[in-house]
Structure formats: structure tokens, C-alpha cells
Amino acid sequence: MRASFFDARRLIEYLSSVQGEQRQKLVEELGFHATLIFVQSDLVALLFLVSVTMQNVQIAIIGSGFGGIGAAIRLKQEGFEDFMIFERADEVGGVWRDNTYPGCACDVQSHLYSLSFVPNPDWTHSFSPQAEIWDYLRKCARDYKLLPHVRFGHMVTEAVWENDQQRWRIETSKGTFMASLLISAAGSFSEPKLPQFRGLETFKGKMFHSSRWDHQFEIKRSRIAVIGTGASAIQFVPAIQPQVEKLYLFQRTPPWIVRRHDRPFAQLERKLFRRFPVVQLLMRAGIYSFREVLGFAFRHPWAMKLLQPLARRHLKRSVADPVLRAKLTPNYLMGCKRILISNDYLPALTQPNVELITDGIAEVRQHSVVGNDGVERAVDAIIFGTGFHVSDFPFAGRVRGRAGRTLSEVWAGSPKALAGTTVAGFPNLFLIPGPNTGLGHSSVVYMLEAQIEHVLTALVYMRRNGVAAIEPRSEAQEAYVARVDKSMRGTVWTSGGCLSWYLDTTGRNSTLWPTPSWRFRRRVARFAPREYVME
Length: 535
Fold this sequence. Notes:
The structure is a single chain. It is built from 16 helices and 21 strands. It has helices at 8-16, 20-30, 66-77, 95-98, 130-143, 233-240, 267-275, 277-299, 301-318, 322-327, 345-349, 407-411, 444-465, 474-488, 492-495, 517-524, and strands spanning 32-40, 45-62, 83-87, 150-152, 156-162, 167-172, 175-184, 206-209, 223-227, 246-250, 257-258, 340-341, 354-357, 361-365, 368-371, 376-378, 381-384, 399-400, 429-431, 470-472, 532-534. Strand 1 (32-40) and strand 2 form a beta hairpin. Helix 3 runs parallel beside helix 13, helix 7 (267-275) crosses helix 8 (277-299) and helix 13 packs parallel to helix 16 (517-524).
């Protein structure tokens, strides 16, 4: 959209006073490109051209993790070339770029935790390490020529639906953009969650969250306080334990942990995957099917009780001390919180330089942490393994819909969406991932792909029928959410006797999909026009 002409002489005088890099920075921050051609003599300034062009795009994607990269590839494959990817960092990769802590790896097998339309025959292990997954995403971006579409260093600060133009106005740290459609692929694990303790701001040592690991800090021979025992902590704790002088692990609730059945892939296997892609496809199908069978236990607590002895046996074999073992034994049904996999976490806790504290934290002082047991423990650093803002969708506070209200205001603490992807009152907005699209037993990439296909079917419908804007009907969204909530009742996630990050502030599980994942894929595979308001 071309803007009206400005007072050319004023603009020329102002821009002429700003030179070099400062002028370019000003133009970028204002959100337009100015082309200025003039000739100046001693007496006359001759203006040839002043044009101001807004930065427009058909489709805007926020984030370059699996969701953003996957969506961009499929858009290209379906003939949609007019899109931009806004990435706040300087490289693609999302959570696999940000999380570089020691021992970081995926807890879903590589051949399933990857895009089905971009198979990778060269995975080196059953469960890939962080660096390998990040390399995979960067290769996807290069191979499919996505990098020219990426705007690095563009932090999206606000997205507002402009009713009169039927477009999204997207404010970024480097300018304003207009887009017909907005795909939010910001991810569920992008914003670290930090606890609040009395005196935390007075601590003089090093503090950081596991997803913002400080590699400049010398971990060797240091005294470390680790707060949290989630999926990240069980990976970095055994990785740093042999190096530190003392490790104090503050545990609120013990997780259920089972063995990690990892192994390297031989060169012959990888050659077989490359030469016969169907073999890799069969492996992917086998992993998926096995995990879906396990999913039955999450939906039927009686079945989960039959599997729980496997985790108890793993704990008993790893920890001989009955007192320590008691502290590490959960008092809720397995699966209520995320089940973790590790072979070295529990043994690491038995080492003489590790102390497990289960009484909580009373306060933090300048050089120590004081537990509720009254003991003051001197530490050089505090590492938070306390998870992320998941159910509260931090980005939701920056998105304003048709009525001028933000997603956070509309959701009021409990995110809801039709097909986990579109929200009433927010035209042409697609959330990848969205509410109730997470999985507690399998690969979230499978769900992201299903959502991406749903978005594509909507875009194709709009293109064929000349539709400018769509949003779900309120009654359709409410009916969908009601069915999801009904299916969630009685599952281990709602009846397992724990409080988990799956639950939002209202106590509702707005994070997970409650039935077999193939049912979600079947449900979102079609675009049902009757469920939408169209303009």
C-alpha cells in the first residue's frame, strides 16, 4: 500500500540532517523505505522524488522453529511465495537454538521428531542431541531457500488487526509491516519461567535459566544451586555434576523417570536410510505406533498403574539409599506430570558432591541460599531449571483482535481455539502451536504438521473463493472446546493427583490433546466453511 506524499521539503531537510548508518536506522525504525533524490546548488534545492512505501506481505510468520520453518516450506510447496518470517534472534532454530545447556537432547526419537516432508537419513542417534537438531533446522532453511524470507533481529512487539483494511499491522523492533494473514509460531518453550524468592535480587553470584545458559561462567570447581527437577534439569545435572565442587538440587516435586533407550545409528543403517527412504519411513511409523499404544495408558489411569512399576524398578536400581530413594519417589500417578527419560540423572544424585533438598527455599542472600530447613548453603551460581510460560502464551498479550482486546484478555487465563488453531474475534490469525495441541506421549512435530496442513487448506479455500478474512464462529469454537474438555475428563492429566504446567490458571488442561493424535490430524485435515465467518 503506497502512503500519501509527505511534505517533501520538510522530509528532505530532516533526513538531510541525519547521515550514514543513522539515517538507515531511522528509516528502518519508522517502518518505511524512503528514496530521496535531489540536487542542491548554492541557491536552489531541486526535488526530483520522494516516495514512501509501506512494507507489505501476504503472510507473516512469527518464529523460526519447527512450526515456522515447517509452515514456510509447505507454503512454498503450495505456491505461496509472498511471506516473511520474523525472528527476534540472529539465526533460525527456535528452542533448539536457544537451549545450549550441557547434555541438551530430545526425549522423542529423531525419526519421529522431524518433519515428515523433510526426512533426515543422517541422524546419528535414536535421540538426537541439541546441536544436531539445530543443524537440521538450519539445513531445512537453506535447502528450501527460506533465508531470504527471514527478517532477523525483528522482535514482534505488537500485532493489531485493522478492521478497515482487513490486515494485520505488525510492529517489530525494526519497523512496521502489514500482512493479510498472521501465523504465530512463537513456540511453547520460548519464554523462561523464573520463580520469585525473597532476597533473590540481592544475590551477587551468577544466575541464569537453563535456556539462557551462560557459557562464560566457569562451572568447574564451583558451588551450584539448581532449582527445579524438570526435563532440562535431568539432562544438565548429570552433565555438570562431575565438574562442580558442590551441587545443591532444590526439588519441589520428584518426577517419574524411566530408562532412556538410546543408541547410535551405524553407518550402514544411515546408508540404508539414504538409499531406501521407505525403510526410514517404516521406522518412523513404528515409533509413532508404539507411542500411540503408550498413549492409551495416559487416557486410562488403570493402565498407567500397570506401567508405573517400570519407573519404580529404574529408581531402585539407580539409587540404593532408601532415604534418598524415598525423596525421589513421586506421590502422584505417573503421567500426571511429564514422564522423563534418563539413565544418568538418578545415579548422579547419589554422588558425594550432590545434596538433594526437598524442604523448599526460605530466602536467597548475597552469596547463599537458605532452605526452609534453616540451613544456609554458600553457592557461586544459581541455575534455574524451572520451565517455561506454556499455558499462558506470553505472546497473547501482544495480539489485538477485531474488538481491540488482546488474546490474553479474551482468554482470561484459559486459552481456547477452534481446531487448536484459530480464535473467534481474531481474523486471519493462526496459532502453531495453539491451545490443546501439545502431546504428553509423542512428538509435537506431528501435531504442528497437522496444523500447518489445516492452515494451507484454509488459505487455498480463501484464494479460490476470493475471501479476504476468516475467523471462527463463536458457537463453533465453543462446541469444539467443549468436546475437547469432555475427552480430557478422567485422563491421568486431570485425575493423576498433581499440579502440572499442563494446567492453566483456571485449573483447565489447555495444553494437551486428550485423544489419539491421529484423531486430531483427521479433525483438522478438512476446512469446514460453515464453522467460519467470512468476508
